[in-house]
């Protein structure tokens, strides 16, 4: 019994295939672009290919993320908060607080056994999202994949104190003009982002264990700075799984939904608009 979770994010779309034995058997990720339904289908087929499965093998699909309504072959959609909570609990069962830093939003939530108890969002300004760090890198002519190695060479982060992305960008320009190293500027951008994230976590009355998810957390320096600010150990899913937490959580919710349907616990009224291939 296989299920799939598809997370249509603002920057990347991720898909995960989950087996009833509790294993992730396949995953796929692509740039989202502006054709959200196409991105969902491509990521899904990449995950199927890695799993060595056909579309007919997957019995239930749950979509999540900001583009979750644009997945026409879904059986059900859930919020990314719910999906991230389930995914975080899958990787770290004792998780109590989840910090999710995505390309366009930052979210903090307090959870209990994979269920959201309270949450706060920062989706009003780019200075509080991963996009700020990536934009800073591009301004200095670095690619996103070069951020990690670059910031690892930093000796001391420069101060970026503005709470507005426009003014923060001006600070970056001033630091470049003053001769600050790109590594120290990138480090400063991360520290600035972490300061905002910790404030968000305080607003949900954070408590350990802390689990960090989202694309920007694939940079080790970012994880270290968060840990230092919290003065606590933090959990991070290994490797690129830090970007797949919501997709995994959605696939787990699909397993639970499918099992309840098979047990006759409810009548599934989900309105599937048509699978992409042969069922």
What does this structure look like?
This protein is an alpha/beta fold. The chain folds into two domains: 2-84 and 243-262, ATPase, nucleotide binding domain (Nucleotidyltransferase, domain 5, 2-Layer Sandwich), CATH 3.30.420; 93-239, Nucleotidyltransferase, domain 5. It has eight helices and ten strands. The chain has a five-stranded mixed beta sheet with strand order 3-2-1-4-5. The protein is globular, with a radius of gyration of 19 Å. It starts with a strand and ends in a 17-residue tail after the last helix.
Structural class determined from secondary elements: alpha/beta
Helix content: 25-40%
Radius of gyration, in Å, reads 19 Å
Order of helices and strands: EEEHEEHEEEHHHHEHEH
The CATH H-level superfamily of the largest domain is ATPase, nucleotide binding domain
CATH class category label of the largest domain: Alpha Beta
Number of domains: 2
Strand content: 15-25%
Helix count from the secondary structure assignment: 8
Kindly report the average pLDDT value: 88
In whole angstroms, the N-to-C terminal distance is 14 Å
CATH topology group of the largest domain: Nucleotidyltransferase, domain 5
Q: Numbering strands along the chain, what is their spatial order in the largest sheet? A: 3-2-1-4-5
- Biggest sheet: strands, sense, closure? 5 strands, mixed
CATH architecture of the largest domain: 2-Layer Sandwich
Number of strands: 10
Tertiary shape: globular
> Uncertain segments of ≥5 residues (pLDDT<50)?
none
